[in-house]
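Hi team,

Below is the intake form for Glycosyl hydrolases family 2 sugar binding domain-containing protein from Marinicrinis lubricantis. Please confirm the fields before the structure is written into the shared record.

FORM ID: S-0412
PROTEIN: Glycosyl hydrolases family 2 sugar binding domain-containing protein
ORGANISM: Marinicrinis lubricantis
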Amino acid sequence: MKKIGIFLFFLIITIGIVLVSTTRPNDEHPQAKDGVLDVTGWKFDKDGILPLNGEWEFYRDRLIGPDQFEADERGWPIHSTIEVPNSWNAYVSETQNEGRGYGTYRLVVKLDEQDQILALKIPRIATAYKLWMNGELLAASGSVGSHASEAIPHYLPQVAYFTTTSGTIDIIVQVSNLIMSEEASGCP
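The structure came back. Fields below:
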């Protein structure tokens, strides 16, 4: 019995060392800047999980789909960038309050490896959202809308798998929070 206890102790220590050695501290992760996250040179199998933190494009009071971005119909003003994860309260319309509003987040990820199967963990967006990767609807929760009668929030953590087919991933997330009085989560 004592030998089994010692074996389990060393097994747990070994697993802990492997896990710690395969991930980088947060300050070593690339950060998104001006809506672009450059992860060329990042090896997911060696460098570990990559948070999509930093400055995302944010289009307040606009629900913009991938087709509109592809056509480059930018007749709408970009508010600027928004720090993710973070509250959007300072960015939603002046006519909205208490975290209510809607908008579109966008991040372009540059990588140098193609044909990889990757996953995106969506742990907490306590509102309605739709998430596209390279034009393909990858995840959704609730019903996104620009009016309270259309928007139905839903809390649904998800893991979405996708395959990279080029050196660029275009992530678009539409979010609406028109019912809850608390601030919207730090999407995505």
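SUMMARY LINE: Residues 1-26, 182-186 have pLDDT under 50 and may be disordered.

Thanks, M.
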